Amino acid sequence: MKTQIINAELTYTKLFSQSYEEENLIRFWDDEIPDMYTHNFTLVKNYSENLMEIISDELTLRKEQNKSFLRIEMNFDINEKILGELHVKPELTIYDYMYIKTDRFRNIGGNSDCVIKQASSDEVILDGRTIDVLANEDSMGQDFARRRIDRKLKVYEMNQPLDLYVCYHKDIPIGNCELMTLENIAKIEDFDILKEYQRRGFGSKVIKYLLQRAEKQNVKHAYLITDSSDTAKEMYKKCGFEKIGVKTELQFQL
Questions:
Q1: Which of 47, 56, 98, 151 has the smallest set of CB atoms within 10 Å of its CB?
Q2: Where are the domains of the chain?
Q3: How far is residue 197 from each of residues 31, 63, 139, 169, measured CA to CA in Å?
């Protein structure tokens, strides 16, 4: 299952980014929004004894390209002590891959006083864009939040396996979420409920809806990625998600 998840992650990233693959790594870049970390990074495929050499080479390359950051992703744990060998110290973040069978939607409750719509009309797309900016402008800055969602909207409009959904309460948009459905697995991503509507069951209702939608398409497995600071992590666990692996991120400012 973890292999399917990693392959789905590659599919998702390639919706937004170009890529170049070598034996030990894949480099991703997005010329439209080059300052977006999640579209511009290096994936180290597997752990090896020369891991620090690979990272050092990537640091050198990014500096030669006059880039302001380097993001390294790895689908395995890393010993923090070995990072001391690097001449540039990164910010380390560990993410959890959370997995669930889509038919588990039957066990999820949630606030029934909401409506979830796919962003297939101009009105719902605009609502989704507004929610995305409101949910992320404090942490990202308004300008970047706008550029980020506008970049994503281009992909949503290309008839890709990725769609945006918007949650409404009394006709007011209060949240949104992405769902990518592949043949065997679905990915839930960029899930936001506005702060004033959190902890009221709306998030659970969105999860239930997305899992049910995937299950109707005969997709039997689903996953999402979360970190320890994600306020929705406990909700995911209550919905039935289980940890199935980790992703390590190293963020270097150059």
A1: 47
A2: 2-98, 100-242
A3: 35, 43, 18, 9
CA distances from 159 to 9, 113, 154, 231 (A): 18, 30, 10, 31
Cα separations (Å) of 206 from 113, 127, 236, 244? 11, 16, 11, 22
**Per DSSP, what are the bridge partners of residue 179?**
163, 188
**Residue pair 245/5 in contact by the 8 Å Cβ criterion:** yes
Tens digits of residue pLDDT in 211-242: 999 999 999 999 999 986 677 788 999 999 99
* 237 in Cβ contact with 107 (< 8 Å): no
Two tokens at 103? 């038919």
pLDDT tens, position by position, 95-132: 999 999 999 999 999 999 999 999 999 999 999 999 99
Architecture of domain 100-242: 3-Layer(aba) Sandwich (3.40)
- Ranges of beta strands (E only) in 33-153 are 41-44, 69-74, 91-101, 115-118
Q: Are 222 and 30 in contact (CB under 8 A)?
A: no
d(CA 233, CA 78): 22
Residue 79's pLDDT band, with cuts at 50, 70 and 90, is: confident
The residues that bridge with 250 in the sheet, in sequence order, are: 72, 92
Confidence (pLDDT) at 159: 78
- Helices assigned H by DSSP within 30-100: 51-64
- H helices of 157-242, in order, are 202-216, 233-239
